[in-house]
Write a structure and sequence with these properties.
It is built from twelve helices and eight strands. The protein is α/β, with parallel strands linked by helices. It is globular, with a radius of gyration of 17 Å. The structure holds D-malate (MLT).
Length: about 260
Amino acid sequence: MHTQVNNITIGYSDQGTGLPIVFLHAFPLNRTMWVPQARPLSLHFRIITIDLRGHGESDAPLWRYTLEQSAGDVSALLGHLEIRRALFVGLSMGGYILFAFYRKYAARVKGLILADTKAQADTEEGRNGRFQLAQIAYKKGPSAIADVMVPKLLSPATIQTSPDLVQQVRAMIEGSQISGIAGDLMAMAERPDSVPLLSRITCPTQIIVGELDQPTPPSDAKLMADHIPNVRLAILPNAAHLSNLEQPEAFNQIVSAFALNLEK
Ligand code: MLT
């Protein structure tokens, strides 16, 4: 499905009925990374997955944008869908966007699931790394980005034993537009430090992290858990950064239990 919000086309899926659960994907993927969640969870809940600006079937503006704008797109889409409050799940960049969303629209957040993400802003080294990655995207295209990203997103065991999953992740990256890849890199490099926000997150919050996650390791998850008042932390064995794809059953079980509890 598609709609126009904030002067761009946004692609999304909306399946099932019940408590709305809104899923925000990682960089540089798209809403199809949530297929293993959307099908089973839509038997009990209303599952909305969104192609963030720059990805999938959404427009990739040839212009600088911010994660606040991505959060604004999510808010506008929820307005279009007549959803006032929801449970939000954000993985990695999706989590960064949830911090921006919470700053502006806390009243719309019934609960938060922060997966494989972190609250700190980029370091100087991290920002330089994003600039280099944008250069690779411009010069060599998305498949060179896939070469760099896949070993960061998936565990060595997954890469060795699950060629289909590796191919699925590569295909998402290779389908990304260069302006979306570079736009995200700039937006992530500019994002503010969200550590001061953590103690002000008052809704029930679940943190999930793969024990082997390198870009946002369990120490980043523990930092968030130390500051958010009403929080639980789950560390998933045998999962790296894309824990929802590497351990979908365990991931879904946590989302489902948390959502059922929110409904009480
Ligand atoms: C992601 O998975 O969204 C990215 O690894 C996040 C980042 O580069 O900071």
